[in-house]
Amino acid sequence: MTRWKKSLRSGTNTDCVEVAHQLDAVRDSKNPGIVLRFDRDHFDRFLMDARNGRFDN
């Protein structure tokens, strides 16, 4: 079974990006049927950029 995680900062909010480390994948919690998968290097880079605020508006 795939374990999807979202940021603790999201609280009970449903407008979240969820991450599945075992799949190297992300999805939108509002539309969980669409999954974006990455190779390991790109997934690690994506997570690093997200943690560093690169995608903040």
Q: What does this protein structure show overall?
A:
There is one protein chain. By secondary structure, the chain is of the alpha+beta class. It has one domain (8-51). Helices cover 21% and strands 26% of the residues. The chain is built from 1 helix and 3 strands; from the N terminus they run E-E-E-H. The termini are far apart. It comes from Umezawaea endophytica. InterPro entries: DUF397. Residues 3-51 form the DUF397 domain.
Topology:
Elements: E1 17-20, E2 25-28, E3 31-37, H1 40-51
Antiparallel strand pairs: 1-2, 2-3
- Distance between the first and last residues' Cα: 33 Å
Oligomer: single chain
Number of strands: 3
The main sheet orders its strands as 1-2-3
Short structural summary:
The chain is of the alpha+beta class and 57 residues long. The chain is built from 1 helix and 3 strands; from the N terminus they run βββα. A 3-stranded antiparallel beta sheet has the order 1-2-3, with no helix packed on it.
Key features?
21% helix, 1 helix, 3-stranded antiparallel β-sheet, 57 residues, alpha+beta
